[in-house]
Structure to design on (231 residues):
């Protein structure tokens, strides 16, 4: 809790800038800024563990500020909460009764380039994530949170494809992947075996691998009306 409050204090100026730009844009006749609340679900896995598949579901939500550059081009800056992790369920039909669960909770700051053509849009960018807390447990070890700690900072790249289903409502499918390890290999940690030479060379630990479906709503400020001249 203390670490989360410390992080919020560190980004308070970023939050202030987002709200200030949106407030200023209300006074402009043609605003270039749009505030967008976002809400969605995540399907998660971790590259570097012994388990495959997007079996861990999570939640994401927050605020984005869109800054229009040209007609089809814009930048988006956000502050969001996102759940990541991994899960392995038991499979009694194959006499497999082992389970594993990893829950990672992040505050994430994405910076995205957005290109829009008619109803469809594409996004590309990077994000910084701050790990608030996490939980890790398995049938073999029980709750072993903290035994193999995760790094507090995460660095990811994002690629998305979306569609405006209404003038103010958009839905986007996005990948969110760590490009630096979130947990380096440690003494006593069982490392997976890779047949791929590239995976062997560049894999330095655990990496988050996320699929997101996000719904956004535009809160574009109303254009200010010019006062009518008295006759």
């Amino acid at each position: 809790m203390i670490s989360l409050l410390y992080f919020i204090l560190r980004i308070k100026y970023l939050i202030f800038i987002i709200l200030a730009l949106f407030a200023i844009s209300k006074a402009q006749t043609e605003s270039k800024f749009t505030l967008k609340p976002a809400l969605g679900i995540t399907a998660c896995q971790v590259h570097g563990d012994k388990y495959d598949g997007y079996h861990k579901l999570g939640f994401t939500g927050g605020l984005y500020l869109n800054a229009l550059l040209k007609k089809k081009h814009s930048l988006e800056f956000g502050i969001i909460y996102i759940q990541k992790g991994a899960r392995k369920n038991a499979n009694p039909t194959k006499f497999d009764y082992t389970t594993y669960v990893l829950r990672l909770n992040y505050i994430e700051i994405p910076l995205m380039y957005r290109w829009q053509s008619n109803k469809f849009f594409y996004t590309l960018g990077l994000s910084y994530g701050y790990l608030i807390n996490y939980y890790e447990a398995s049938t073999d070890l029980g709750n072993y949170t903290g035994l193999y700690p995760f790094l507090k900072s995460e660095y990811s790249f994002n690629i998305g494809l979306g569609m405006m289903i209404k003038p103010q409502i958009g839905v986007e499918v996005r990948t969110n992947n760590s490009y630096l390890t979130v947990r380096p290999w440690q003494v006593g940690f069982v490392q997976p075996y890779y047949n791929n030479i590239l995976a062997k060379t560049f894999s330095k630990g655990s990496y988050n691998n996320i699929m997101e479906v996000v719904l956004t709503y535009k809160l574009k400020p109303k254009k200010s009306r010019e006062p009518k001249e008295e006759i």
